[in-house]
Specification:
The complex is a heterotrimer. By secondary structure, chain A is mainly α. Chain A is built from 3 helices and no strands. Chain B has one domain. The chains are: A mainly alpha, B mainly alpha, C mainly alpha.
Chain lengths: 98, 258, 114
């Protein structure tokens, strides 16, 4: 087996481990984008150009985009929940005072 | 089951699985010495039987076209699922959120306008990207490419428009109804080609169009038509996915600007 | 040494599954699922590879040169697109779960009811 093939396989395994061991989702998205690019490179080295084309666009663009949008929506929901809790608490105080 | 018990159980079984798997992998043919007859047979006869030079696309849309039909419908149904799960909230929830946004400034905070450099770069790339996507879809039977790859490349063109300008421009360029209709037409085209095969030759998805000369773009019969249908459907599906997620994440910011 | 690709596929599967089992955040769990799916690509690629083979595209290449297997590549191609849409469906579920239960921790998602 060529050195290139061994090297890319080891790099893919290392990148996969790094993605799992990063716990914060926002930093993990960058990791998964990089993992997708490494996978696409591996597909090229193993003589599979069709699959590599597919993987480049999906692994590096579409998947990280959806993850980031989900994280943005979750942050928005957390803010909305916090503010509505504050408003409810204030309303209860006013009712008890009255 | 608590976390610790779960982790300990997992590590034990993972080690067992790893070693049993490696012991079983020694029974596979050695890496690099692929023996199975199916791939070799297709490599020998594929070019002559179907007049197509890219055999992966030929396998995808012709020799194993029925599997690809199933996979395409998995995509279609997942997009329906996402659109259903992330559908618009009822009107009272929207008014409540707008009230909250008026009283509290940090909610739905405004993102800065994209810089001129970003706008120029992304808008300049939209045209070449659409042309490139159509090229990959139509040359699927000649060189690496095909419906799936070209479809996802086409789906990133509206995304560039969103990055350059506003979400409103994105909505005007890729309006929801048009994209939905396009995606449905793409999905129906695949089934229609299959039924045409049944009408023309007797089998579902049989290759009934003239095969043409190898190396020409006008070759390989129904593979080109199916490729175009799949490209339309995949592009429409991914744009719809982006629509649903963007609507959710940016709902407050958009309503506050109106 | 010729077992390396199969070992890498098994390693990716196990490390992804470890991430799923010990995850504290639902979105992190979904990304580990993507890693598990990638292990199948490595395995399929390793099965179809031929030493000295070229890509199964015969534009300008004489028919008869040893090429790698096109059937496994066709399987992987559609699988990648389907993986992205399945991840999208799971993410939509995560958004709705967070809105309803106000947490993304998979352990706590089981306890809060109603």
């Amino acid at each position: 087996m060529l050195i290139l093939q061994i090297a890319i396989l080891v790099m893919v395994a290392a990148a996969g481990t790094a993605v799992v061991l990063t716990r914060d989702p926002t930093s993990q998205v960058i990791g998964i984008s990089f993992f997708g690019l490494l996978l696409a490179l591996m597909f090229f080295i193993f003589q599979a150009p069709d699959v590599a084309l597919s993987q480049i666009v999906i692994g590096a663009v579409a998947l990280p985009l959806m993850f980031l949008l989900t994280l943005a929506k979750v942050r928005l929901n957390v803010d909305i929940a916090r503010i509505s809790d504050q408003q409810n608490a204030k309303r209860k105080e006013n009712e008890e005072a009255a | 089951m608590s976390r610790r018990v779960r982790s300990v159980l997992f590590v034990g079984s993972a080690l067992a699985v790893f070693f049993v798997y490696l012991w079983a992998a020694r029974g596979l043919p050695r890496f690099g010495h692929y023996q199975g007859p199916y791939g070799d047979v297709i490599n020998q006869v594929g070019v002559f039987e179907r007049h197509a030079t890219d055999l992966v696309t030929a396998v995808n849309f012709d020799y194993r076209g029925f599997d690809t039909l199933g996979e395409e419908f998995i995509l279609f149904i997942s997009v329906i699922g996402v659109t259903l799960l992330l559908r618009q909230q009822p009107e009272e929830a929207k008014d409540e959120q707008d009230n909250m946004a008026k009283n509290d400034e940090s909610l739905g905070r405004d993102a800065p306008e994209p810089s001129d450099a970003t706008k120029v770069m992304t808008l300049a790339l939209v045209g070449p990207l659409v042309a490139f996507g159509i090229y990959i879809v139509t040359h699927g039977q000649l060189s690496p490419g095909g419906g799936f790859q070209g479809g996802v490349i086409l789906a990133t063109a509206p995304l560039l428009v969103y990055l350059a300008g506003d979400y409103k421009t994105f909505q005007r360029v890729a309006s929801h109804t048009v994209v939905e209709i396009g995606e449905a037409i793409g999905a129906c085209a695949y089934v229609a080609v299959g039924l045409a095969g049944m009408a023309g030759g007797g089998l579902f998805l049989q290759n009934v169009l003239p095969l043409g000369t190898t190396g020409n773009i006008n070759s390989a019969g129904t593979i080109a038509v199916i490729s175009a249908g799949v490209g339309l459907e995949v592009a429409g599906g991914f744009v719809l996915l982006m629509h649903s997620f963007l609507e959710q994440a940016l709902s407050l910011r958009l309503r506050s600007k109106q | 040494m010729s077992l390396l690709p199969f070992a890498i596929a098994a390693w990716l599967f196990i490390i992804g599954l470890y991430g799923v089992v010990t995850s504290k955040n639902f979105v992190h769990l979904i990304m580990c699922l993507v890693i598990v799916q990638s292990s199948t690509y490595v395995l399929l690629l390793a099965i179809g590879y031929k030493v000295g083979g070229v890509a199964p595209v015969f534009a300008g290449v004489k028919v008869g040169t040893p090429a790698v297997d096109p059937v496994v590549q066709a399987l992987m191609l559609t699988d990648i697109v389907v993986e992205a849409t399945v991840a999208a469906l799971l993410l939509a579920l995560a958004v709705q779960a967070q809105k309803r239960f106000r947490t993304l921790n998979p352990d706590k998602l089981q306890e809060l009811r109603g």
